[in-house]
Amino acid sequence: MTATPDLRTPRFASPDLLRSAFRRHAAGVAVITARGALGPVGFTATSLTSVSAEPPLLSFGIGTGASSWPAIAETGHVGVHILGEHQHELAATFARSGADRFGPPTAWRVGPQGVPVLDGVLAWLVCRVVGRVPAGDHRIVLAEVELGDADGAGRPLLYHQGGFSALRD
């Protein structure tokens, strides 16, 4: 039997409450890439969302203090990569501050529109940025899919309770 939430002792809104609640929400893991002025940039995102089928639009969030933000703020195109359960280390590399994200062992190549495209992912998309919406200390980036490939083999990588995991049957 499931316990009823105790509505008499709610916590007031805070960054900690939001983080605690979303640790309980399993999310797919993606890496967003772009061509920056000093080379490729990228970051791990769990905020990827399908927005519209016609036209094909997606969104993701990025903090304005993130090292990738200056490039994302200026670029016309981004790469979106859906990671597989075999890519824990790749997700961790792109999430780690100060990491050499595009050095070995990361396998990638320059794709359409100069966007870095990662190898071995479940799906990749090259998207044209159509908007950047202020949202607190983040920006919600809206992007229209131009081309890609969704034929990678495997199951998706998930983020839950502060760590990467896989689907269970």
From TrEMBL:
<dbReference type="Pfam" id="PF01613">
    <property type="entry name" value="Flavin_Reduct"/>
</dbReference>
<feature type="domain" description="Flavin reductase like">
    <location>
        <begin position="22"/>
        <end position="166"/>
    </location>
</feature>
<protein>
    <submittedName>
        <fullName>Flavin reductase</fullName>
    </submittedName>
</protein>
<dbReference type="InterPro" id="IPR012349">
    <property type="entry name" value="Split_barrel_FMN-bd"/>
</dbReference>
<dbReference type="GO" id="GO:0006208">
    <property type="term" value="P:pyrimidine nucleobase catabolic process"/>
</dbReference>
<keyword id="KW-0560">Oxidoreductase</keyword>
<dbReference type="GO" id="GO:0010181">
    <property type="term" value="F:FMN binding"/>
</dbReference>
<dbReference type="InterPro" id="IPR050268">
    <property type="entry name" value="NADH-dep_flavin_reductase"/>
</dbReference>
<dbReference type="InterPro" id="IPR002563">
    <property type="entry name" value="Flavin_Rdtase-like_dom"/>
</dbReference>
<dbReference type="GO" id="GO:0042602">
    <property type="term" value="F:riboflavin reductase (NADPH) activity"/>
</dbReference>
